[in-house]
């Protein structure tokens, strides 16, 4: 099977992105399963190679087709958008925010043109984006707009556990309010289709919102009035879904193979389950777009940037996961 090309964006240059990218390209196993390709700034990458003390060369190309894809060499597009005299690690910087946005934009362009088979992204900083007047709060919003998708679907994967999220960044009070029949049904449908696009077979389990899924209304009415009716309707439509299942057990059951994935009903419910299991190897997959995207699930870590102490485990796992699913991923939405 032809090895997939994985497009990697450098992330915010002032954070740990360049360091973990250098360490990822130095991981021999990456080249055994894919052809990694970087979009960034050559000067920053050279600096990262020096900081991490890895034996890598840089091969700047105008077209991906000119890449060597040989271990020991970083094939990359150089956007040349950092002025080193204005650069400093660990600081909010409009120049770096703009640069990070441009790396994402270019790697998405490559994915939309099918020049890369999937993309893996490194951390960006929300404050730096804001300083650069980039009109997005984060990766998901940027990717959704560039791809023309209103509500991209997020899935976490760690070991054998896959978790989708009914809502992302909102207060817990608001998150409870959006657990409605229509939204739960819509997400069951979308998550099921997302699993098919990745080649994942099996049952989707819906987590309960309240303790013990509400105990038939004793601890809350959401399961009785909203969640269970949505699940029953989805079953009638032919979807392989069960629930609601108590959140204190459903994630463990999925980890051990009883379910192919879990629909978490709010942000922290699923984040706690996955990150407690293995923080570094919890990888984010953005689905429901014309391309596959994986990402580390940590930030820019400004406090340790440039010190060669950042772990590249999450970035390596993100590239591995992109390579794992790329051959099965169908671009049709």
Automatic annotation (TrEMBL):
InterPro entries: PdxA_fam (IPR005255). It holds the Pfam family PdxA. One of its GO terms (molecular function) is metal ion binding. Its cofactor is a divalent metal cation. Keywords: Metal-binding, NAD, Oxidoreductase. Belongs to the PdxA family. PdxA2 subfamily. This is 4-hydroxythreonine-4-phosphate dehydrogenase. It comes from Garciella nitratireducens DSM 15102.
